[in-house]
Design goal:
- This protein has 435 residues and is α+β, with helices and mostly antiparallel strands.
- It is 24% helix and 35% strand.
- The protein has eleven helices and 17 strands.
- It has a six-stranded antiparallel beta sheet.
- Strand 9 (306-310) and strand 10 (313-314) form a beta hairpin.
- The radius of gyration is 24 Å and the shape is globular.
- The termini are far apart.
Length: 435
């Protein structure tokens, strides 16, 4: 899958680095990903049948960062057309160079983490075994027929990526990674799925579809309004989204340095206690075959676990190379929502916890999160189809408005909720639900 033009780009960068008489390159960092993928889907009452057309993709993406001999810097996002003529690309970057007092230095070469991210079985599904993907859709079709759904969607996708990371420091590292995903939803009520770097077993798909069927049958019933103040249970996907929007955005070192964060430089440097002592949050890109794992990021930093919040105290920000230059803090490997890991003093199985909840409300999804001010922590979010819980029983769905302050929520006695049908944990705390 290697592109010859990328090899030419390496050569051009090295040549310009040595050519001091043409405003040559002082240092550079290049990260390129070449991805092949295939996906198919199904939806009910398609005119051409149950299956949507299959789709095959070949993509190139990446970033190139250059510091020039005169102190200017250049950054560019790479695509396949841009790398066709490497010499022209570098000349264009030179013309677009800018002054940046915090232009980061290229890090020295460091070791990559030893973490599994490639499964040959997933890679084979993209080529010779692509027909096997239809078995996953057949399973969802059985569930949809059992539910007699009016509106149903399912999809399965596989991709393999070759990533190459190189720098003027002498770094030359490449690795292959795979990713497989399955998802299904019925009547716009509830969705289930699985994303992993290894093969998703058919038996696991069946298990998740059985869970989907149970939840859809419950949510077809309309429940009376919950009590305004009750136990709010965030589904894993909602908990993950809120943590990223309110906590991870504010833990960005560049935002902290610029005064665009709810936290100050002193808050991080003093390891200030800002949340409930039972709450911890980690960035962990080293879990084998986990969708958020990688051996090395595009900054040339080897993957390693980083504690962001420990027992309520802010331990580390997420620090890019530029953020490191601004703050003096050591850079952290790239963080995304899939690499996060909640650790709480109180942890239970999600549905066991539901069974013990006297009065509660499960926020299965929310609308409008992107409109909320992450700096204040305030939110007022529509829950189009939440689930009302009374005396440990899920009574049906109710459209509500979930409001409060997420920083205040993180100061409560949180319960982390694990689930066999999700790769992330949910959260429970006392909150407010309005009609």
């Amino acid at each position: 899958m290697k592109t010859h033009n990328i090899d030419n780009l390496f050569g051009t960068l090295e040549k310009r680095e040595k050519d001091r008489d043409r405003l040559g390159i002082r240092e550079w960092l290049l990260s390129v990903s070449e991805t092949e993928g295939v996906s198919i889907g199904s939806r009910q009452r398609e005119t051409a049948g149950v299956y949507s057309p299959s789709k095959a993709t070949v993509q190139l993406s990446g970033r190139l960062y250059v510091r020039w001999q005169d102190g200017l810097a250049s950054r560019i996002r790479l695509s396949r057309p841009l790398v066709q003529n490497p010499e022209e690309l570098v000349s264009f970057m030179r013309e677009a160079a800018f002054a940046d007092p915090y232009a980061p230095d290229i890090p020295p070469v460091q070791p990559a983490a030893d973490v599994e991210v490639f499964d040959p079985a997933v890679s084979d599904l993209i080529g010779k075994n692509a027909s096997e993907l239809y078995k996953y859709l057949d399973e969802s079709t059985k569930t949809f027929r059992s539910l007699e759904t009016k509106n149903c969607l399912a999809g399965v996708s596989c991709r393999r990526t070759q990533r190459r990371i190189a720098s003027s420091s002498g770094l030359r590292f490449e690795y292959d990674a795979t990713r497989m995903g399955f998802s299904a939803s019925a009547d716009s009520l509830y969705g289930a799925g699985k994303h992993s770097r290894d093969l998703v077993p058919i038996l696991e798909v069946r298990d998740r579809l059985e869970h989907l069927e149970r939840m859809v049958r419950i949510m077809r019933d309309k429940a009376p309004a919950p009590r305004p103040v009750c136990t709010v249970i965030l589904s894993p996907s909602v908990a993950q989204a809120l943590l990223w929007h309110y906590l991870l955005k504010n833990l960005d070192a560049e935002a902290i340095f610029d005064g665009r964060s709810a936290f100050s430089l002193e808050t991080v440097e003093e390891k200030a206690s800002r949340f409930h002592p039972g709450f911890s949050l980690w960035h962990n890109p080293c879990r084998p075959m986990h969708p958020g794992s990688y051996p090395m990021d595009g900054q040339g930093l080897g993957a390693r676990p980083v504690c962001l919040v420990e027992n309520g105290k802010i331990k580390n920000a997420r620090v890019t190379l530029k953020g490191s230059k601004q703050t003096g803090w050591p850079p952290t490997p790239s963080v995304d929502s899939d690499s996060l890991e909640i650790k709480c003093e109180k942890e239970e199985d999600l549905f066991d916890y539901v069974g013990k909840t006297e009065r509660g409300y499960i926020a299965t999804s929310v609308l409008g999160l992107h409109t909320q001010d992450s700096g204040t922590g305030d939110y007022s979010l529509a829950v189009p189809r939440g689930v009302v819980v009374e005396n440990g029983e899920m009574k049906g769905s109710f459209k509500g408005v979930f409001s409060g302050n997420f920083f205040d929520d993180l100061n409560m006695g949180l319960v982390a909720l694990d689930s066999p049908w999700h790769s992330f944990k949910g959260l429970a705390f006392e909150g407010r639900i309005d009609s």
